[in-house]
Amino acid sequence: MLIQCTKKLLDVIERKPVSYEEENLLFCWHANLITLNRRKTIVLVNDKNRYVVVLYGLKAKDFKRLDEAILNAIRLTLLDECIDEEIVEEYVRQSGEILYGKTKNSSYVGKMNAACNVAYLYEDLLLDNTVYQTFVSKVASRYWVGKQEEGYISPSKEMFKDLEAFAGRPIFKCKAVELKVTLEMENHNIWRRLVVPINSTFTQLHMVLQAAFGWLDYHLHEFFIYGDELQDVSLINHSSYIKARYKPIVNLVSNEEAFDYPNDTGIEMRFEKGIKLSEYIPKYKRLLYVYDFGDNWKHYIEVEKVIDDYDKNYAICIDGEGNAPPEDVGGEFGYDKFLEIIPDKNNPEYEGTLVWGEYQGYKDFNISEVNKNIKFVYDSFLL
Predict the structure, then answer these.
(1) What is the reported pTM?
(2) pLDDT of residue 148
(3) Which domains does the chain have, with CATH numbers?
(4) What is the pLDDT of residues 252-311, one digit of tens each?
């Protein structure tokens, strides 16, 4: 594997550049050393497809074992893309010895600098507890870039095509879970059945649920994860309370300001950022997703099945029923009122309510449209 470095990076790693031409550009990367959040960061860009891999918070010990760190970063990022482990390991094996050289030409340097600029855009997503920034790598690799003869390309899609040609077979294989998600309402039966890779983050699951129920991400949200113990009935009015009365073991919040409020429930609170489903699922099989603390939409999530050989790297909706309420409708009472008005053309509020409902995202459940929107979440890593 050839790593073509900027002079700045070569000086830090104290490596003398070699003169070497790798015939297969899939095993060639350009590398630059930049600073993100005042921490040393290496941005790798693949010469064949412009896929991006980010190593962050590098210390002296990491530079001393840079060969290992680079291979691990590539390996972990591809595995996080749900690439079959056998294919990833074969790619690493065929990479051979890592050699360090100078940057090739101004064209490649320009592509590398463009990738570094994308990394700057997402520095708020970087995790402090690991060098290997697989999530930011995936996000940066979905940033469309210009290619003179082809217009704009997605580096992630190009990498997937290149790996499929390399392996000679389909490349995706990962562990996933089948979830039944029910919007808790007294008078309506609204639910979706989803298959979700467990290496997805809870932030991604949030966006999948937004797409599945037609929400528009106007409001805050949180997750509760439940064990097998029963909750004290005195907490019946708490947002974590569910009819089955299971006690939550953790509350994942989407806004750090949540930590400013007193927490007298004894429930551990964690910031959602970077936490993957695999940290809790499938060990725990019951969750609650609360969206919009005003209308208080509570979605009960049950893990129905574990799939060991899921052949996609994104979630899908496989079944469902019922139209979800529009945003800001005023809870279930407001939704019932809304449903009374929209079929009655003689109602003086009919036209205004119909237009308002469409503006707020209200539409009939359509599984094809839902899956198109879910796929967009993963293709763009919309956050």
Answers:
(1) 0.90
(2) 67
(3) 2-167 (3.30.420), 174-324+365-380 (3.10.290.30)
(4) 999 999 898 888 778 899 999 999 999 999 999 999 999 999 999 999 999 999 999 999
Q: Based on the number of CB atoms within 10 Å of its own CB, is 319 exposed (0-12), middle (13-18) or buried (19 or more)? A: exposed
Lowest mean pLDDT among 31-40, 49-58, 256-265: 256-265
> 16 vs 78, which has greater pLDDT?
78
User: DSSP label at 2?
Assistant: E
CA distances from 123 to 46, 48, 62, 338 (A): 20, 25, 20, 42
Residue at 55: amino acid letter: L
What is the per-residue pLDDT for 261?
Answer: 84
Query: Over the Cα atoms of the chain, what is R_g?
Result: 24
Q: Which residue from 226, 245, 224, 228 is spatially nearest to 236, judged by alpha carbons?
A: 245
Q: What is the pLDDT of residues 181-237, one digit of tens each?
A: 999 999 999 999 999 999 999 999 999 999 999 999 999 999 999 999 888 777 788
Q: How far apart are CA 115 and CA 50, in angstroms?
A: 8
Give every strand in the sheet of 2-5, ordered side by side: 52-56, 39-46, 28-36, 2-5, 99-102
Q: Which of 54, 53, 75, 73 is nearest to 65 (CA)?
A: 73
Count of Cβ atoms closer than 10 Å to residue 103 Cβ:
18
Q: What's the CA angle centered on 93, arms 88 and 98, to 5 degrees? A: 110
Specify the pairing of strand 268-271 against strand 246-253: parallel
Q: What is the three-class DSSP state of 84? A: coil
The pair of structure tokens assigned to 259 is 């930590």
Nearest alpha carbon to residue 124 among 380, 379, 375, 383: 383
Which of 80, 112, 88 lies closest to 3 in space, CA to CA? 112
350 burial type by CB count under 10 A (0-12 exposed, 13-18 middle, 19+ buried): middle
Secondary structure of residue 280 in the 3-state scheme: coil
Check if the beta carbon of residue 286 is closer than 8 Å to that of residue 246. yes
Q: How confident is the model at residue 381 (pLDDT cuts 50, 70, 90)?
A: low
